[in-house]
Task: inverse folding
């Protein structure tokens, strides 16, 4: 999928970020090309979610550069990025529990004014997640965990992203639901042409759905390769795939 | 409960003349008997002794609910509005006075509701905007003789500016910190009004504020008159309150209103969806301030006098209590809350001594039995974590 002439859609150069005094990521470099699914795997506290929060601009970075579409975005306010096609589905879903499903989805299109386009995307989301259409008038907080994850993804898709950051989409979900979620991630990528960056603890599943993968350990990238190669790597299998 | 009994007896015995326990024992015994009876009734109800009476009652109330539900909402609105219009024609002065203050507090409550109920920002200094509005009209009227109707939007704009000035540094804070800082700002505004002698005459206040004027058909030609009587004030504030209700209702159903709610629910998630959270919070804050400022300008016109002591913290607490009592985020709830907190104490004037005591008790009971308010907002329904 990755062509040599393609410009990267997202590029991190030596990015570091910290929570107060605690350095969470210490010089991460990674590149994502249009059309890819890139997964970031690693143990708890390796800095995976921090990396996504830094890309989204929620967490200010302390060093390095982040470019999106060839333009530097570090220092840009987080709320300006969705309008440029960069959207994150945060860890733990974080839907708006007291807004209805429909209102949650509408919040995803908050900055958009094109009514026809919004309606088109709403239908697409309902096509991907029929359960959301069934529950459209229900409050977000009354949905099950899997449905909430679908709602969070649907909400992000309503901003018509070109680059979607997914943080732990499988967290706390039943295996059957997880498979369904990953099937939809692939469909979003293949049919809608959305580039996906996937952060996952479930390394096996993530790498199977990805083109390439990065392995994070204590705030550093320790390995980067094609997903298939990482899956076959005996060290990775031992450390992250439980063999 | 036991604690109450243990403490009540010695506390009732402390009198200015010294300790006197004879009378207190009698009161104590009465309190104990009444609460014992109530407790027994509660227990019996729990065991289903009163089912024979409550079942038909429930059926009746359900039937009533169905019957009222069939009548469209707009008919209710028209009825309530007609009642409000006719009200001053069938009542006397005292009732007008109470009704005017209820309507003023409805405006204030709805304004605070935008900030607290919709955007979820706890504001303990809301009355400051009421003060800004009141002083804006008072000063413009006394020094420049500007008319009430011209000053109304100016007062709103001034309050909105004050909201932005106070909001910009404070709204970066969350939760408890925000509450404390707004409390501080509320006091700052009052103290400035109290001490800026050259502008506000300090604690002496400002006298000689003109009432609103109007053009009216009189003696065969249009004439300018001053709206000085209570009925006329009533209609002015009724108009203001209706405008406020309509504005807040529209806001509630707009995208901006939804953004307020999104920020209340989850600020980070809202930011990730492209909501400028600081901007939205400032907007909520200044919109709320505008309604407070409009009510303030009316207050100044109605009293023809303003002084800083009308804008103390207890007023902020009162307005907040209305919003919480009525149901955060719900327009009919806030109206009910204002009615309950202003009109009821007037009706039960005989018990004025125990007003704060009853007030505190009722609030505590509400939080236990109806934590979402008298008329909860529909959105504030069951949350998943509460259900399971």
Result:
């Amino acid at each position: 999928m990755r062509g040599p002439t393609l410009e990267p859609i997202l590029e991190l150069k030596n990015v570091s970020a910290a929570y107060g005094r605690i350095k969470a990521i210490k010089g991460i470099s990674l590149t994502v090309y249009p059309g890819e699914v890139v997964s970031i795997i690693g143990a708890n506290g390796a800095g995976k979610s921090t990396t996504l929060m830094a890309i989204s601009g929620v967490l200010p970075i302390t060093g390095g550069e982040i470019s999106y579409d060839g333009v530097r975005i570090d220092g840009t306010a987080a709320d300006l990025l969705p309008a440029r096609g960069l959207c994150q589905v945060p860890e733990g879903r974080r839907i708006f529990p007291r807004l209805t499903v429909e209102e949650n989805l509408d919040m995803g299109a908050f900055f958009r004014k094109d009514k026809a386009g919004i309606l088109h995307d709403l239908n697409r989301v309902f096509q991907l997640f029929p359960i959301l259409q069934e529950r459209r008038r229900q409050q977000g907080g009354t949905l099950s965990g899997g449905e909430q994850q679908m709602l969070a993804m649907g909400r992000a898709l309503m901003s018509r992203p070109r680059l979607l950051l997914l943080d732990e989409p499988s967290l706390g979900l039943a295996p059957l639901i997880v498979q369904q979620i990953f099937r939809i991630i692939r469909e979003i990528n293949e049919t809608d042409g959305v580039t996906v960056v996937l952060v996952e603890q479930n390394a096996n599943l993530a790498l199977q759905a990805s083109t390439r993968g990065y392995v994070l350990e204590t705030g550093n990238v320790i390995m980067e390769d094609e997903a298939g190669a990482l899956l076959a790597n005996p060290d990775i299998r031992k450390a992250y795939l439980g063999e | 409960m036991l604690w109450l009994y243990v403490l009540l007896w010695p506390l009732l015995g402390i009198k200015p003349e010294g300790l006197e326990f004879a009378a207190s024992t009698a009161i104590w015994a009465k309190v104990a008997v009444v609460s014992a009876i109530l407790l027994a009734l509660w227990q019996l109800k729990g065991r289903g002794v009163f089912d024979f009476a409550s079942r038909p009652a429930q059926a009746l109330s359900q039937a009533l609910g169905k019957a009222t539900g069939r009548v469209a909402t707009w008919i209710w609105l028209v009825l309530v509005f007609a009642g409000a219009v006719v009200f001053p024609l069938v009542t006397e002065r005292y009732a007008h006075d109470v009704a005017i203050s209820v309507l003023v507090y409805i405006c204030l409550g709805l304004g605070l509701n935008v900030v607290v109920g919709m955007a979820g920002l706890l504001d303990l200094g809301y009355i400051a905007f009421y003060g800004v509005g009141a002083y804006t009209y008072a000063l413009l009227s006394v020094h420049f003789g500007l008319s009430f109707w011209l000053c109304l939007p100016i007062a709103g704009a001034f309050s909105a500016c004050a909201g932005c000035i106070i909001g910009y540094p404070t709204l970066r804070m969350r939760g408890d910190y925000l509450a404390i800082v707004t409390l501080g700002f509320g006091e700052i505004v009052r103290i400035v009004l109290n001490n800026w002698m050259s502008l506000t005459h300090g604690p002496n206040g400002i006298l000689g504020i003109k009432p609103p004027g109007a053009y009216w058909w009189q003696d065969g030609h249009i004439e300018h008159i001053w709206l000085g009587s209570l009925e006329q004030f009533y209609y002015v504030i009724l108009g203001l309150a209706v405008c406020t209700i309509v504005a807040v209702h529209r806001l509630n159903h707009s995208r901006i209103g939804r953004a307020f709610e999104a920020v209340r629910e989850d600020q980070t998630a809202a930011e990730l969806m492209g909501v400028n959270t600081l901007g939205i919070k400032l907007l909520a804050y200044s919109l709320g301030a505008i309604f407070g400022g409009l009510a303030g300008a009316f207050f100044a016109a109605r009293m023809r006098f303003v002084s800083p002591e009308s804008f103390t913290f207890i007023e902020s607490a009162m307005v907040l209590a209305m919003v919480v009592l009525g149901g955060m985020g719900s327009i009919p709830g806030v109206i009910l809350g204002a009615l309950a907190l202003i009109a009821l104490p007037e009706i039960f004037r005989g018990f004025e001594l125990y007003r704060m005591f009853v007030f505190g008790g009722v609030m505590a009971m509400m939080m236990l039995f109806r934590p979402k308010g008298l008329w909860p907002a529909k959105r504030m329904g069951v949350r998943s974590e509460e259900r399971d």
Q: What stands out?
A: The mean pLDDT of chain A is 91. Chain A has one domain: 10-240. The domain at 10-240 of chain A is CATH 3.40.50.300 (Rossmann fold).
